[in-house]
């Protein structure tokens, strides 16, 4: 009863339902926008770092320690925090020493031999904008034409810009500084006025000079400390080995270190007579940053950055993030056009702008309600930019569901044109609601499964996308049917027919009429082509070639699994999140980050493999991340370790031993330039031993060599503070011993650092080896530590490894969990094990093939790609579930009939949805932002692959192993409405569950001919033809009724007669009078609806059939019974599933009698309705015509009498009787065939 209430409500009060949904959406939208702050997309890459991992928590806590260490902060390097003797940042001594060395090196390098003013404004720096040049002909840049070309291109593209003089660094003469280019350095060496004045001899002499100095540079002997006056060089012993001509000018070092690639004059290419210079760097005298945006957009964004000799192929202007935000907004037109393409496809398919707008409102309302739940119910404060992809994904899901709904809606209207809106809604929603529940619950669960990811943005996307799908479920089950009713009731009737004379009275109207005729012809052509393709060719191709489809798609799935999981697999990222790829690889910014930055020595030593991996061991602060894990801006607070202490003797002894153990490890690297703090206890012990006790100063005696190690707690604390105070007086910077003090001067934490022999690497395996070795050693050492030091932990430069490790381990786990959850949800919605297994197999195959293709496209597994892969399962569900539910609700019992049924019913909508998504993906390909472009590629791939797996692979599996009748169905003891298939569909089946086709036919042949109403064409057709119509005749042998019922309103298990045609009412009354003495009562209501909306079966089917066949009534009265029963059948029984059938109309009437089996009394009829005997052909064999077209009973008053006459003639109730064709099998019933005559005018064939 609840099923009938909701459709009736939507049919009677569509405006009320729409208004209620609109009010709910409006309230949630306003509340969502007003509560909290609006989404901030200024940092679109934020949130793509793993957070809920051990490494992630330690990195968060370490960043907190660094940010909370300094003057007037939680932690300080000195116990005397009132005195500001150190900088606010509180950075380590090693970092300060490195900065001091860099500053000194900069000062020395500025002092050139060309006078105080110099030619350049200091040395090149990382903070200056950089351009990378490459030869246009892929040759060497070390020639006169190429070097002068670089100078000329800089003049044309950079210095000619109107804003360059406002941005450049200036000399003392207030002129823009020259650029640090290859030509300018050669001009300086040989005293040329500009780089355009240099000669070939200057280039040759410079090459000879570089060739002589390059070996010393690559050995590490030629360093900035060796450059300068003789007095400066004598301070460093290694500089004596360097020839004077290499240290006289800083140009030699800067050329090798900054401007030429690492392979130029390297030890491997030193012996080349003419070494090849592939890349050359040019430093502009402008700072990186947003100020360079104007120059880039005006002169560098174009693709004409080349001439006959050189081209600009890479650049680092400090604009990558700023430009990404710029293009992110500029390229929004592509997703908008993609969404527009989806809704244009809906409008084209439905030919209704109103319905398209209503679907658009449903998508927007679903997204806004989900946003309200996301912020208010789930209390998420961070809304990542990737959540906006939900607009495209949800639009695609809605498009698929809209196509399916209106296919079912139009089917209900065509089969019951006289039925009311309530019956159309009820009939459509019985199938559509089931489909929506299975599809949306499965899709939503697949998206929610990505919540287990450790990446914040993916977790936020999982929650928002899953919620959007479930909210959309409610909207599609209420908003869409109400919109359809509103359209049928108020909009469709407004189309007024104009007579032909109206269109001929002006030329404009005649042109419009001609265009209308052309469009109608095109529409008819497309309609006929669609019918041929989706109702004939596709079922034929699937069933005929099912062996090929299974083998082909299984091979694709296996290949995809091998490529995705074994070799070569998805490449792990090689850049940290701050440098993650955001544009296509051909973009100059991306080429610099991914390719060129590793080609120059200064970049390799600063960010590449040249760096040593440090190890930082922390005590006193627990590695606890108590911030909001769903907000990357929330880092939490420091959680102190209450058990931490280093003052007791046991802790002092253990720290001293820990120092010796570190030095004895093979991974320890003693760095002379950056002193480690891991042996601070050893240094403190030397300081204490070096202090002689004083007879005069008793306070001095507290910290002197009279005390033996380990010291008492109060002595240790007092003396360590004194040591820090004395060491701090010697220099301007605060002395970092590794201790961190709180505001009261107590030791709050201990941070010990040292360098290792491991180099920083982008290789995941080597980084993993480093982490596992250090982690295992630290863990073992903490077990032997005293109680106050057992909670120590370590960290390092592990940001990239953390991302690589998370992506490599969790991506496949998320995908597997999504597939497993999809199986469980499908099983809970269909309660059929086989269909759930087949569906999940098709979904898994789709995902594996998609990932395999991504591997072949050489995608890196960055966070964005991981997001797409985690969403792959959710996007693969819809098409497969379309066919799964249609197969499950099919009224036929045999698998081939079900396959043909589901293909005819769902293939057109599925193909249209796939086409819409494919066009949307193509539209997004021209985008500059890589995320948009990859989203378009991913949408195209997964939709095509999903459509193929669903239409061909899933259906082929069902052809072989699909459940028949209730095979594979989970039975419940309390299920009284179990789907029951009558015996009449049994002979039509080609397969039985677990049996073969041949055994099934043999068993059928052996059955006795007790049911004379069975008209089986399959044995005959198998001998007559091998065409598709015969070989798949099981799809046409359904015993469902093919006549249309009148509009019957079911309420409280009674059928009111208001909607019954008067002629039918008179015939029913006459029939009751005729059967009065037989004590027969006609059923007034259709049978109870079972799980399939297309067929009703009861346990008393055979009883009614036998009694009807053996009734003693005349033929005319039998027709009246049939006529009445047809008018009382349930509308669900009348759905025209297939366009063809091989069953007689009289048999259809009997099936309607079966559907009315809830009658309390049986019809007592005899079998005297026909005197035909087996083999009787009426002598008209040559004029027989086998008609396989299904008939449609016209219920209009004008055709009532004509149809009555036609029915009487067909069943021997008129002038001529039917023809009985003997069956080729003696134990099978004969076939009743319609005679070709003019009396068939009541049929549409």
From TrEMBL:
<feature type="transmembrane region" description="Helical">
    <location>
        <begin position="868"/>
        <end position="889"/>
    </location>
</feature>
<feature type="region of interest" description="Disordered">
    <location>
        <begin position="992"/>
        <end position="1071"/>
    </location>
</feature>
<dbReference type="GO" id="GO:0007224">
    <property type="term" value="P:smoothened signaling pathway"/>
</dbReference>
<keyword id="KW-0325">Glycoprotein</keyword>
<feature type="domain" description="SSD">
    <location>
        <begin position="337"/>
        <end position="486"/>
    </location>
</feature>
<feature type="transmembrane region" description="Helical">
    <location>
        <begin position="461"/>
        <end position="480"/>
    </location>
</feature>
<keyword id="KW-1133">Transmembrane helix</keyword>
<feature type="compositionally biased region" description="Polar residues">
    <location>
        <begin position="1027"/>
        <end position="1042"/>
    </location>
</feature>
<dbReference type="GO" id="GO:0016020">
    <property type="term" value="C:membrane"/>
</dbReference>
<feature type="transmembrane region" description="Helical">
    <location>
        <begin position="354"/>
        <end position="374"/>
    </location>
</feature>
<feature type="transmembrane region" description="Helical">
    <location>
        <begin position="429"/>
        <end position="449"/>
    </location>
</feature>
<feature type="compositionally biased region" description="Polar residues">
    <location>
        <begin position="1236"/>
        <end position="1245"/>
    </location>
</feature>
<feature type="transmembrane region" description="Helical">
    <location>
        <begin position="909"/>
        <end position="930"/>
    </location>
</feature>
<protein>
    <submittedName>
        <fullName>Dispatched RND transporter family member 2</fullName>
    </submittedName>
</protein>
<feature type="transmembrane region" description="Helical">
    <location>
        <begin position="386"/>
        <end position="409"/>
    </location>
</feature>
<feature type="transmembrane region" description="Helical">
    <location>
        <begin position="812"/>
        <end position="831"/>
    </location>
</feature>
<keyword id="KW-0472">Membrane</keyword>
<feature type="transmembrane region" description="Helical">
    <location>
        <begin position="13"/>
        <end position="36"/>
    </location>
</feature>
<feature type="transmembrane region" description="Helical">
    <location>
        <begin position="837"/>
        <end position="856"/>
    </location>
</feature>
<comment type="similarity">
    <text>Belongs to the dispatched family.</text>
</comment>
<feature type="region of interest" description="Disordered">
    <location>
        <begin position="1218"/>
        <end position="1245"/>
    </location>
</feature>
<keyword id="KW-0812">Transmembrane</keyword>
<dbReference type="GO" id="GO:0022857">
    <property type="term" value="F:transmembrane transporter activity"/>
</dbReference>
<dbReference type="InterPro" id="IPR000731">
    <property type="entry name" value="SSD"/>
</dbReference>
<dbReference type="InterPro" id="IPR052081">
    <property type="entry name" value="Dispatched_Hh_regulator"/>
</dbReference>
């Amino acid at each position: 009863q609840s099923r009938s209430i909701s459709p009736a409500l939507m049919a009677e009060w569509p405006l009320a339902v729409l208004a209620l949904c609109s009010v709910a959406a409006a309230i949630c939208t306003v509340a969502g926008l007003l509560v909290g702050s609006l989404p901030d997309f200024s940092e679109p890459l934020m949130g793509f770092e793993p957070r809920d991992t051990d490494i992630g928590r330690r990195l968060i806590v370490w960043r907190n320690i660094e940010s909370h260490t300094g003057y007037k902060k939680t932690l300080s390097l000195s116990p005397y925090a009132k005195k500001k003797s150190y900088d606010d940042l509180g950075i380590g001594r090693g970092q300060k020493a490195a900065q001091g060395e860099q500053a000194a090196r900069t000062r020395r390098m500025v002092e050139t031999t060309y006078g105080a003013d110099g030619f350049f404004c200091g040395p090149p720096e990382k903070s200056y904008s950089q351009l990378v040049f490459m030869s246009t002909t892929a040759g060497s840049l070390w020639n006169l034409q190429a070097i002068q070309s670089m100078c000329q291109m800089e003049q044309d593209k950079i210095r000619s810009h109107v804003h360059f003089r406002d941005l450049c660094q200036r000399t003392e003469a207030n002129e823009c500084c020259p650029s640090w280019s290859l030509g300018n350095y050669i001009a300086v060496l040989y005293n040329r006025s500009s780089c355009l004045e240099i000669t070939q001899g200057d280039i040759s002499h410079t090459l000879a000079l570089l060739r002589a100095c390059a070996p010393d540079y690559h050995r590490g002997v030629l360093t900035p400390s060796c450059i300068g006056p003789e007095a400066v060089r004598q301070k460093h012993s290694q500089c004596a080995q360097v020839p004077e001509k290499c240290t006289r000018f800083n140009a030699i070092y800067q050329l090798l270190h900054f401007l030429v690639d690492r392979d130029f004059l390297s030890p491997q290419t030193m012996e080349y007579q003419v070494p090849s210079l592939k890349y050359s760097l040019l430093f502009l005298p402008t700072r990186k940053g947003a100020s360079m945006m104007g120059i880039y957009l005006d002169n560098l964004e174009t693709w004409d950055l080349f001439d006959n000799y050189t081209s600009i192929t890479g650049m680092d202007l400090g604009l990558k993030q700023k430009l990404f935000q710029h293009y992110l907004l500029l390229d929004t037109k592509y997703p908008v056009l993609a969404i527009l393409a989806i809704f244009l496809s809906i409008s084209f398919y439905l030919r209704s702008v109103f319905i398209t707008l209503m679907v658009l409102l449903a998508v927007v309302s679903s997204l806004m309600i989900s946003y309200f739940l996301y912020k208010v119910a789930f209390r998420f404060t961070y809304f990542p930019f990737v959540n906006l992809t939900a607009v495209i994904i949800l639009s695609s899901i809605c498009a698929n569901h809209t196509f399916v709904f209106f296919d079912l809606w139009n089917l209900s209207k065509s089969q019951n044109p006289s039925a009311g809106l309530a019956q159309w809604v009820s009939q459509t929603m019985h199938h559509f609601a089931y489909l929506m529940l299975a599809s949306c619950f499965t899709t939503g669960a697949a998206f929610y499964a990505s919540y287990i990811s450790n990446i914040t943005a993916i977790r936020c996307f999982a929650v928002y996308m899953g919620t959007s799908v479930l909210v959309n479920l409610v909207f599609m089950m209420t908003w869409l049917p109400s919109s359809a009713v509103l359209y049928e009731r108020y909009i469709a009737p407004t189309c007024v027919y104009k007579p032909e004379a109206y269109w001929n009275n002006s030329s404009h109207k005649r042109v419009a009429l001609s265009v209308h005729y052309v469009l109608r012809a095109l529409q008819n052509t497309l309609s006929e082509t669609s019918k041929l393709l989706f109702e004939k060719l596709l079922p034929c191709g699937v069933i005929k070639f099912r062996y090929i489809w299974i083998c082909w798609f299984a091979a694709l799935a296996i290949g995809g699994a091998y490529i995705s999981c074994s070799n070569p697999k998805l490449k792990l990222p090689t850049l940290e999140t701050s440098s993650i790829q955001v544009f296509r690889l051909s973009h100059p910014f991306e080429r610099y980050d991914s390719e060129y930055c590793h080609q120059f020595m200064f970049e390799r030593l600063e960010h590449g493999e040249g760096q040593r991996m440090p190890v930082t061991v922390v005590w006193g602060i627990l590695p606890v991340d108590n911030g909001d894990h769903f907000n990357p801006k929330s880092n939490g607070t420091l959680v102190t370790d209450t058990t931490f202490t280093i003052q007791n003797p046991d802790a002092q002894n253990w720290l001293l031993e820990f120092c010796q153990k570190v030095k004895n490890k093979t991974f320890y690297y003693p760095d002379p330039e950056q002193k480690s703090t891991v042996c601070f206890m050893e240094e403190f012990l030397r300081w204490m031993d070096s202090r002689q006790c004083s007879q005069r100063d008793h306070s001095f005696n507290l910290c002197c060599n009279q005390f033996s190690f380990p010291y008492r707690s109060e002595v240790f604390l007092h003396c360590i503070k004194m040591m820090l105070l004395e060491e701090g007086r010697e220099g301007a910077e605060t002395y970092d011993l590794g201790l961190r003090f709180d505001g009261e001067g107590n030791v709050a934490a201990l941070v010990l650092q040292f360098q290792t022999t491991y180099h920083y690497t982008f290789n995941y395996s080597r980084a993993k080896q480093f982490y596992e070795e250090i982690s295992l050693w630290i863990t073992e050492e903490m077990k032997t530590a005293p109680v106050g030091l057992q909670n120590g932990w370590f960290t390092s430069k592990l940001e990239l490894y953390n991302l690589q490790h998370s992506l490599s381990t969790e991506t496949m786990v998320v995908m597997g969990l999504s597939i497993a959850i999809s199986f469980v949800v499908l099983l809970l919605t269909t309660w059929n094990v086989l269909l759930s297994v087949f569906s999940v197999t098709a979904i898994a195959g789709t995902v594996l093939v998609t990932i395999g293709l991504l591997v072949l496209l050489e995608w890196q597994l960055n966070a964005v790609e991981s997001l797409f892969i985690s969403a792959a399962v959710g996007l693969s569900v819809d098409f497969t579930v379309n066919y799964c539910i249609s197969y499950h609700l099919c009224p036929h019992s045999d698998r081939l009939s079900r396959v043909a049924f589901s293909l005819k019913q769902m293939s057109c909508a599925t193909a249209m949805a796939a086409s819409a998504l494919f066009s949307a993906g193509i539209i997004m390909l021209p985008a500059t932002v890589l995320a948009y472009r990859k989203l378009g590629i991913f949408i195209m791939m997964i939709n095509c692959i999903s459509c193929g797996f669903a239409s061909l692979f899933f259906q082929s599996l069902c052809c072989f192993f699909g459940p028949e009748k209730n095979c594979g169905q989970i039975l419940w003891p309390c299920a009284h409405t179990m789907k029951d298939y009558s015996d009449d569909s049994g002979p039509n089946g080609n397969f039985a569950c677990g049996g073969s086709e041949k055994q099934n036919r043999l068993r059928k042949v052996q059955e006795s001919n007790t049911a004379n109403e069975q008209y089986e064409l399959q044995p005959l057709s198998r001998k007559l033809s091998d065409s598709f119509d015969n070989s798949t005749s099981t799809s046409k042998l359904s015993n469902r009724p093919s006549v249309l019922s009148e509009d019957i309103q079911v309420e409280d298990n009674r059928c009111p007669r208001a909607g019954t045609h008067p002629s039918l009412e008179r015939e029913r009354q006459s029939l009751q009078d005729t059967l009065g003495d037989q004590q027969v009562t006609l059923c007034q209501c259709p049978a109870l609806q079972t799980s399939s909306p297309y067929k009703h079966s009861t346990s008393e089917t055979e009883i009614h059939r036998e009694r009807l066949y053996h009734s003693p009534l005349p033929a005319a009265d039998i027709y009246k019974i049939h006529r009445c029963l047809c008018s009382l059948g349930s509308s669900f029984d009348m759905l025209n599933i297939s366009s063809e059938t091989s069953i007689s109309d009289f048999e259809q009437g009997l099936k309607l009698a079966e559907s009315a089996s809830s009658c309390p009394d049986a019809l007592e009829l005899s079998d005297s309705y026909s005197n035909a005997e087996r083999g009787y052909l009426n002598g008209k064999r040559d004029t027989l015509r086998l008609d396989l077209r299904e008939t449609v009973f016209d219920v209009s008053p004008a055709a009532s009498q004509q149809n009555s006459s036609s029915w009487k003639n067909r069943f021997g109730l008129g002038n001529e009787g039917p023809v009985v064709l003997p069956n080729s099998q003696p134990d099978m019933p004969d076939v009743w065939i319609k005679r070709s005559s003019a009396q068939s005018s009541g049929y549409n064939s």
